[in-house]
Amino acid sequence: MPSVWFTTDFHLGHKNIIRYCNRLLDTVEEMNRTIVERLNTLVKTNDILYFLGDFCIGPKARAVQLRREIRWKKIFAVPGNHDKDTRKLTQEFSWLGNLAEVSINGQRIVLCHYAMRVWNHSSHGAWHLYGHPHGRLANLDNSLSMDVGVDTHDFRPWHFDEIRNRMKARAISTVG
User: Fold this and answer.
1) Do 36 and 70 meet the contact criterion of CB atoms below 8 Å apart?
2) What are phi and psi of 29, to 5 degrees?
3) Which of 132, 144, 105, 128 minimizes the C-alpha distance to 4?
4) Which CATH architecture has domain 4-168?
5) Along the 176 residues of the chain, how does pLDDT read in single tens digits?
6) pTM beyond 0.70
7) What is the torsion angle, in degrees rounded to the nearest 10, for the CA atoms of residue 9, residue 14, residue 19 and residue 23?
8) Alpha-carbon distance 139 to 125, whole Å?
């Protein structure tokens, strides 16, 4: 059975993101290589990846080339604010729309590039996974929401089981 992974905010090709997010890398090439290598090491060819936006900065051709360096087949994507050209890659990604709801092993999950205070079924145990703040948004201890960006996890994607273990430790929010 394939594993399920979540990640966001690669910003491949984006030189300034190294400084903005204090990514301890010297060059954009090193950043691109680090992210792609860690993904390819963990995620197997038939695994499923949910990508929550901001794949690449730059022209469509660059995004296509970078996507081809990533070996797994199926990437479901929610667009981010920097995905203007990446959204044109209809062969490379399965686009879900700006907000998506999925169910994995019976767990309802709301996916969006942006963090939300409440989401569909948030008071009934649904999780919310997001990106965009690059780990700079304070976690709410009793919230079943989580930033799954590469800046929160040493440039690695989050495995479904890792997320489930974190969510088990949190109280269910009663905001409805």
Assistant:
1) yes
2) -65, -40
3) 105
4) 4-Layer Sandwich (3.60)
5) 889 999 999 999 999 999 999 998 999 999 999 999 999 999 998 999 999 999 998 777 888 888 889 887 788 999 999 887 777 777 778 888 899 999 999 999 999 999 999 999 999 999 999 999 888 888 776 789 999 999 999 999 999 999 999 999 885 544 55
6) yes
7) 50
8) 17
Contacts of 75 (CB under 8 A, 6+ apart): 49, 50, 51, 92, 93, 94
Beta strands in the chain (DSSP E): 4-7, 48-51, 74-77, 94-95, 99-104, 107-112, 127-130, 145-147, 158-159
- Where along the chain do its domains lie? 4-168
Report the pLDDT value the prediction gives residue 174, as an integer from 0 to 100. Answer: 45
Contact 156, 42 (CB under 8 A): yes
DSSP 143-170: -SEEE-BGGGTTT-PEEHHHHHHHHHTS
CB of 160 within 8 A of CB of 105? yes
Tokens 């860690």, residue located? 38
Which residue is listed with tokens 């910003």?
11
